[in-house]
Amino acid sequence: MRHILLIFALAFTLNGSAQLNNWDPSWNSTDSALVFHDDLDYYLNAYSKKEIKTMRKQVRIWRMNFDKLMRNTIRDLRTYSEGHGMDPHTHDFTLPTAQSGSNYTLSANNGKIRAFMFGSITNPPARMQMERWSNLVKKYADKEVQLFVIYGDELHPGDGRQFKAYPLPKSEHEKLAYAQEFAQLGTMPVLVDGLNGSVYNAYGRVPNGALLVDKDGNLVFRSTWADARKMEHMIDTLLKWYKAGKPKEFLAQ
Fold it and tell me: Is 248 among the domain residues?
């Protein structure tokens, strides 16, 4: 179940049309927020065909019975519908940081734009996004922007040669060790969700989902797959909107 969404995406994104970035980058203005269009679909359009083939080699998708795969996929979608199963609002949390051990509380950082993705060491797309999001950390180092990862569920625990050394963690200590190793792939803070996956569950159980919370604590974007390009576009737009005084009618220049 944990890896059904990735397998389904990897199986179908080799179709040329799936490579099109069909997300609508515009936004809706309200009295208090700019709300972007959610991007809750299957397709890994953040990646080239070569990168997708690389990720496919890391997992054993060809060993799965296709009928079983489809039944599991449909069951998963009926329950969570690519993040639709979550209450589409900000869910507060306090989690430890893998690198330092200090706690981070989402609501305590209002006044900053917060962008975060879910990931794990056995999650190929999250591994690729670490470097890309780390570049955004550099770009926004002097801005009121925070980017971080929440270490959630393992997507392919113990799968294949790549992830054989990472079975499902049996303790908080083991999960923390995985998160600390994952953190070495980039420069972003990595927050560690508990074994019960409470934060992962609250945000729709999407293994590499990405979310954007504005300075006022509004959840203004959800996506099935983290994509640094989309997040950069939205953060830049929000920064311009705040600089302009948060006008209700806003056209970015």
Answer: no
